[in-house]
From TrEMBL, chains A, B:
Domain (CBS): residue spans on this chain: 207-265
Function, in words: Acts as a magnesium transporter.
The keyword Disulfide bond is assigned to this record: no
Matches recorded under PROSITE patterns: CBS (PS51371)
Gene behind the chain: mgtE
Protein family per UniProt: Belongs to the SLC41A transporter family.
Main location: membrane
CDD domains: CBS_pair_Mg_transporter
Protein name per Swiss-Prot or TrEMBL: Magnesium transporter MgtE
Top-level lineage group: Bacteria
Subunit structure: Homodimer.
GO cellular component, one term: plasma membrane
Compartment(s): Cell membrane; Membrane
Amino acid sequence: MAEQIEFDQAHQALQEVSEALENGRFVHVRRQLQDMEPEDIAHLLEASPRKSRDVLWQLTDPEDYGEILDELNEDVKDALVSKMEPEVLAEATEGMDTDDVAYVLRSLPDDVSREVLSQMDISDRLRVETALSYPEDSAGGLMNTDVITIRGDVDVDVVLRYLRIKGELPEATDALYVINEDSQLIGQLPITTLITTQPDVKVSDVMADADEAIEVTMSDSDIASLFERRNWVSAPVINEHQHLVGRITIDDVVDVIREDAEHSMMSMAGMDDDEDTFAPVFKSARKRSIWLGANVLAALAAASVSNMFEATLEQMAAIAVLMTIVPSMGGVAGNQTVALVIRGLALGHIGDANKRELLAKEAAIGLVNGIMWALIIGGIVVAWKGNWMLGGIISAAMLTNLLVAGIAGVTIPILLKKMKIDPALAGGMALTTVTDVIGLSVFLGLATFMI
Amino acid sequence: MAEQIEFDQAHQALQEVSEALENGRFVHVRRQLQDMEPEDIAHLLEASPRKSRDVLWQLTDPEDYGEILDELNEDVKDALVSKMEPEVLAEATEGMDTDDVAYVLRSLPDDVSREVLSQMDISDRLRVETALSYPEDSAGGLMNTDVITIRGDVDVDVVLRYLRIKGELPEATDALYVINEDSQLIGQLPITTLITTQPDVKVSDVMADADEAIEVTMSDSDIASLFERRNWVSAPVINEHQHLVGRITIDDVVDVIREDAEHSMMSMAGMDDDEDTFAPVFKSARKRSIWLGANVLAALAAASVSNMFEATLEQMAAIAVLMTIVPSMGGVAGNQTVALVIRGLALGHIGDANKRELLAKEAAIGLVNGIMWALIIGGIVVAWKGNWMLGGIISAAMLTNLLVAGIAGVTIPILLKKMKIDPALAGGMALTTVTDVIGLSVFLGLATFMI
């Protein structure tokens, strides 16, 4: 009878384990950990404060280390690995995918990673060294080398017998790769074709084309888009000579998709997307300070603008009271556009062919919302301060700033991307600086001129 | 010989097609569309301005409509479907997955969707009606009903012969489901096991447990977490009587992951994540206005605070010039924390067991960064305005506000989640309101008191 998976299990385990740890019931925790799947232990580690994390790691069966490391997020993985002995680490790599071993080794000091490599057996070492020779965020860095290859001139029956002798297939195997005598990829035999074809048919007669292979240099984001669009489960990787060099599976691609999406979200808030939820205070403070430093410049730019109008501010304090409203609305409206454009750029929806349409559309939205909010806020100000002039000034500034926000919201991310600066990281801050400066200048400038 | 996939193809196609459309070369475009895969046409449609989109849709072979609709984002899909005749739509559904047909029908007026249903053949209609009976964001709404079931008491050989007669397997089939005489799921036979097992072995002797089945009521986000952690390619769905009712595949789960991630990113900027890049101006303006309206309240709250200190502002314009700096830094620092907490909540890393540690850690980061930026900005203000008192006031306000930002950044999203309000949507705005109000109050309050 099928049991349901209780999704709250993980939370419960976290609660139980942390209580047991607090009470020093280590034997109990060790027993609980033995009953858990590696991926659930990984989740538990990520959700644990740093101190309990180290204790938990000590209580975990070292045989599971490899599979757990496979599943951990980068910051947490780095922290645990940095405390492991090279021999233990070398042993752990036996349970890990090639790409993940390469990832771990990249994050270690050179001498430690050389030591770990020297402890691995030859065939594993060669695989890992191959992976290390490609950039981490390319197909070469993402692929595994556990491919099953067959020849095209054999019968389906022969393939089936060969697989029965092999006895086990690598995870997420949905196709066998057909190569020629030069190890070049010439086709794929989907497993589903294999089992629905009569035994006496030749592989080359039923195999699919090899035109869906991934170049070993392709970037991981492009690979993710391809998998998403084609609904692939796995895909072969070839080098510039069409030699089959590995295979990428959907589980690694899902990680890339998740990481890319997290990257956008976290960058937009000025956060490093690797930041562990329980990172050490000083490390986090230092990382986040960079962004606060950028914001100091933006805030000082805005203050310099108001400073130019000190005389006006002195004359009428109501202007100082109201001057934050226009920049605030411009920042919110502009960031809406920035978010839309960043998503569009990431999905490949925005290019030279349509950016003018997009600009026109966002400017029009800025105008529509500008008119609406100019009227509403102008009205509020007239009612509040009983000053028609002030209402008119804030309305004009609001309209101008929302129009500017729409235009800047499209152009800033596109320009940043052209300049090879990540628009998710710098877009929001640049936009806010523009809308702050323009919003304040127009509002205070008009006020100075009119009053 | 394997050809490489050119990732820029899509962009090139977009450029070419839009040029051809502009020049009215429709025959050329129609020919190009015929050479493209449905998923690439979907991408092209999403990247096209609305006017060209309708023309492209007319030029597309109606035979591909179903598969293209399968791949389109929701806003674009809705727009195209709303213009299709029920008969054309009924025909298109033949090429679509059950869950996607159900999605499309949900977005149509009741009478149209009834009309479409009546045009479908009986077995398709029954499947779609089943899917319609479950919530859209549950396993029932996400699953397909194209499962292959076998009995446990037959030999592997019999299964292989059965599959050869069937001739074709549903997409992403990586396991056959073993059921008993009551249609209850009792096990799974992974395809890889099937082909590596000797022909005379009984299915029940090699099948895997059925304990990894998904309850039909499970939410799509929980399903996505499970797939991600277990590295599944597909999973069976069962109802409360353990009856097998369908199957969820990784490609649909990838869409959920992408949508959830986009949702967080877009919501944080106050955007509807369904908003099509080329949505109509008035529709977008209306949707975005809701958020701008919320921000008006936040901005007015801040203005009311400054209004209470009008006398102080009147006395010293430098205070008005400097008063935006403290709220701005608090907003940025607080939103860093909010982003971290939203991600942690989404990944299930934050719960009752560890929220106190998190609060302590973020408060500590607020304190560390608060001290640092208090000193730096205090120094800048002393140098700029030559006023030690003003430097001291802004330092004290900065320190307080960054500490508040850290604490509010943790508590606000957690509280919102408890209140069943999406923290990604409301967290940033609520945080900014708090840091604006506290930042202004402390800075202006101290200034009033001291000067």
